Amino acid sequence: MNPSNPPQAAEYGGDEVSAIVLDPGYSTTRAGFAGEDAPKSLIPTYYGKYNADGQEKIVYGDDVFVTPRPGLSVYNPLNKDGIVEDWDMAEKVWEHSFMSRLTGTKAGNPFQNGLNDDGTQEPPEEMEVESDEKPLSDSPLLMTEPGWNPAKAREKTIEIAMEKWDTPAFYLARTGVLASFASGKASALVIDIGASNISVTPIHDGMILKRGVQHSPLGGDYISSQISALFKANSPQPITITPHYLISSKTAVEAGQAPQAKYKTFPADKAPDASYRALLEERTLAEFKECVVQVWPGPTRLSAPGPNGIPNEDMARTYPGRPFEFPDGYNQVFGVDRFRVVESLFDAKAAVPDPESSFPPPTPAQTIPELVKASLAGVDVDLRPHLLANVVVTGGSSLLYGFTERLNHELMQMFPGPRVRVTAAGNTSERRFGSWIGGSILASLGTFHQMWISKKEYEEHGPNIVEKRCK
Amino acid sequence: MASAGDVRDMLDLPAEGQPRPHKKQKVVEKRPEGITRELYALLGERAPPIAINENKYKGRPKWMNKLRVRPWSMAPFTNSARSDGLVLNHWQRKHESARPPVAAAQDESRMDVDQPREEGKDETPKPTEHDYAFAKYNVKPRLPRRYTDEEYDGNLKNDGWSREETDYLVDLVSEYDIRWVIIADRYDYQPKIDTESEENALVPAKQHRTMEQMKARYYYVAATMLAIEHPPSEMSEAEFELHEKMLKFDANRERDRKDLAALQINRTADEVREEAMLLEELKRITSNEQNFITERRELYSRLEVPISVGNTTMYQSSAGLSQLLQTLLQADKSKKRRSILGDGAVPSPAGQTPNAAGSTGRAETPVTQAANNKKGSTASKETHQAVRTLTPAEEARYGVTHHERVSAGVQFRSDRAQRLTQAKSNVQTQKLANALAELEIPVRLFMPTERVCKDFEKLIQSVNMLLDARKVSEKVESEIRVLEAAKFERERKAREAAGLPALPRPEVKTEAEDGNTGISASHPSDPLAAAGGSAQSGQDQQNVAREASNGGDGNHKRSASVLSATSESNKRQRR
């Protein structure tokens, strides 16, 4: 076959080898079979730890949210940059993501599973060996990583996959590349708005351009902190969020009136940890983001004067407000404030000040337009117009109302010359799971199967092979 | 009752003149299923615009139900694009050896219907025997051979690039399949010189390589290797082209280009707006230009009509005239179509570029002047600017002329000159033509420039005058002759009466008081200047005149020649 001739379109095709795609994010971990259109297993990356009967127990998955166990504390194995810190727990959480829904627990020894409760016979010896089987021994595994993942973490990942899970073949792909694949592009500028990070990744021919990768911590969690800051400074009265598990009953109240609810109280020894409460407060904030928060659509910034002389803030004030009811029944209509909490993604000066927040005030370089600018400055000039014409927006937090519109305006103002085209999947799940879907596409392609790192190759070259193969 | 036949009989019509019109056939539409007869009758002829048919699942065609379900199985396969023999599993059609022959035949007939995907897999008893369908996509670009140590030392040494770094670059190029964007992105060469010194010392020593530097180096290496493999004289055309391209790579130029591209992409909104405006303007100008060119082409094709030379007898009858009209109409139509098409095939002098139209020679005709006005070129500006007055020399140079009265419309200067040769009577015209033929001046001027035309006009005028003079002189001479004959007769009679012998006839004398004085002097004929249009004609003219006057000295021979007539008249005048 001549390399200059493109293959005919009809020749492209998938070839599914029942590979598993694992897309570990900071907030959620997605796993599913390649070739499907959404991950079958979606669990929070947070895990809970508590003591029961003097033993340390660990809760994974959605179970974390359900029961406020005494002393339950919540952790995340990833650090704020989205890089794994606690490898042991990360491995467990990831394992849970595919074991619980996809591969299932292996059939145990039939003599020990309680169904054959004969008790008279000794179990045969060879059965013991079988029960020792590892979770992924017959599924290739495709994992994702952020573009700034250090080499050490990559090697550790393949080590876990090969040695602990015994996968026959493994590949490590960048989230940005996969997100661009999910929107059908081999070259794109991927803007990923995640929970802990926003990142801008230039992709050329299915490979990331490392010098153009930019990321900053102004992700969904930062927006939550901005909302909290807003609640603290709320005008009729500061709002405190009481999570659902602390409410036993509530009655409807007028907007702006003090809540009338009966609260549950936990004695000090039975109460869960503060981190648990923070996690559940975060859920309420997520709901608030989905229902109320809105990005000022532009074309100019919220603080700037509008096109007809009226300041944009005044224009925003004329928009009808949006009501929101908190778990304790307190409800309020949010007006211009709902624009303010996300304005700092585009305009660092517009951040809601909060000295107690764990996030330092954002610098101008951390805003999305600046990230895009820095990212484009890191790639070749000839590529920039093409990248700007293929901007792909992905990540759950990009679902903020009016986000893509504003992004489009910002980019067009910054680069008035070249054509700017922002692509964002309209479907919610396609936006949230963009990189997983790209992985699903990639791992089910017949042409991809030559790229897997096989177990044999791993044994031959060691974990360092991931640097050579997953470029 | 009268039938149609009776009526026909009465009216003397043929028995069956025309077939009777058929009765409109009533179209009976089939009643769709799922609707009662009564309801369908109520609907009338026009079906309602909504679909009455119920949606239902189409299902498989019936013949398919008879077929057996073909089993699939999870089968292992290897990929020949891999070197490690990794075995993966995928679903594929199960091969059945013990298949009933009928079912097998049916199976095969169906297979070619729905088999885009697993060609080659179906018939395989063992998956390993057939190549993996996707292995053929594992392609690599063709790169020149790697250099050996001697080749490097002989041809490829470079001060800027160490051997190690060149190796690194060539490795990267083959690893990333010459995708320079990625190569430049991943390029991270660590010189290995001072491994014992600490990390910090290494950092400043490292130099940043731009993509252009890498390209220049690699292309040089690759071109050299290509030339070593095959000397340029033995290369195939494609190879030679590649070799040339790589050798001619200019890093500086490429860098400049990229600088410009960066400027282009970092334009401000104002600059972009201005550019858009200018582009719009440019578009307007080019479209105007286009219009102008097509208009001018049309004009030229109109001017190009050849002058007919054939005789006109065939058009003198009315049939001939109508035929002429037809052909003219035809020609007109085809011309119109051609001008609409605007193809360049129109045989016209408009093949010249619009720039050539601005030259000075063009500006002479009023048509192009008008066109130039539209275009706003410099030539027309000069002719029309009242502010700038031209010296006579400049006027002559640019061909500027001033007319007292300009007749409307377009005309050829040569036409005007030719009109002069047409006298009132045919005899006179013939005489004029004879005179011109004797002077070897064509009736239709070769080069009807301004000056030539003017001189031609003068020539014709003087020829006319000479002809007139000759006519008068002939008349006078004949009168004299008659009178002299009469006188002679009278004298003879007188002598006879006196008895004297007869005298010989006296010589004929011309008279100075003919009324033709000053003709030649006031209108010096200038035949040579008119014919040649040369600058030295003045002197020639004098010579000719002198010669003519000398030649005619004392010679009384009459001839039809104008020149001799001139000399005679001169002589006469002198006397």
UniProtKB/TrEMBL annotation, chain A:
Chromatin interaction component of the NuA4 histone acetyltransferase complex which is involved in transcriptional activation of selected genes principally by acetylation of nucleosomal histone H4 and H2A. The NuA4 complex is also involved in DNA repair. Is required for NuA4 complex integrity. Component of the SWR1 complex which mediates the ATP-dependent exchange of histone H2A for the H2A variant HZT1 leading to transcriptional regulation of selected genes by chromatin remodeling. Component of the INO80 complex which remodels chromatin by shifting nucleosomes and is involved in DNA repair. It holds the Pfam family Actin. The keyword Membrane does not apply. It comes from Penicillium salamii. This is Actin-related protein 4. It is found in: Nucleus. The lineage of its organism: Eukaryota, Fungi, Dikarya, Ascomycota, Pezizomycotina. SUPFAM superfamilies: Actin-like ATPase domain. Its main location: nucleus. The keyword Lipid biosynthesis does not apply. Residues 119-131 have a biased composition (Acidic residues). Residues 105-148 are annotated as: Disordered. InterPro entries: Actin (IPR004000), Actin_CS (IPR004001), ATPase_NBD (IPR043129). Component of the NuA4 histone acetyltransferase complex, of the INO80 chromatin remodeling complex, and of the SWR1 chromatin remodeling complex. Belongs to the actin family. ARP4 subfamily. One of its GO terms (biological process) is chromatin organization. It comes from the Eukaryota. Keywords: Activator, Chromatin regulator, DNA damage, DNA repair, Nucleus, Transcription, Transcription regulation. One of its GO terms (cellular component) is nucleus.
Automatic annotation (TrEMBL), chain B:
Pfam families: SANT_DAMP1_like. Keywords: Chromatin regulator, Nucleus, Transcription, Transcription regulation. Residues 153-222 form the Myb-like domain. Transmembrane segments: none annotated. It comes from the Eukaryota. It is found in: Nucleus. The keyword Nucleus applies. Residues 1-11, 107-128 have a biased composition (Basic and acidic residues). Belongs to the SWC4 family. Component of the SWR1 complex which mediates the ATP-dependent exchange of histone H2A for the H2A variant HZT1 leading to transcriptional regulation of selected genes by chromatin remodeling. Component of the NuA4 histone acetyltransferase complex which is involved in transcriptional activation of selected genes principally by acetylation of nucleosomal histone H4 and H2A. The NuA4 complex is also involved in DNA repair. This is SWR1-complex protein 4. It comes from Penicillium salamii.
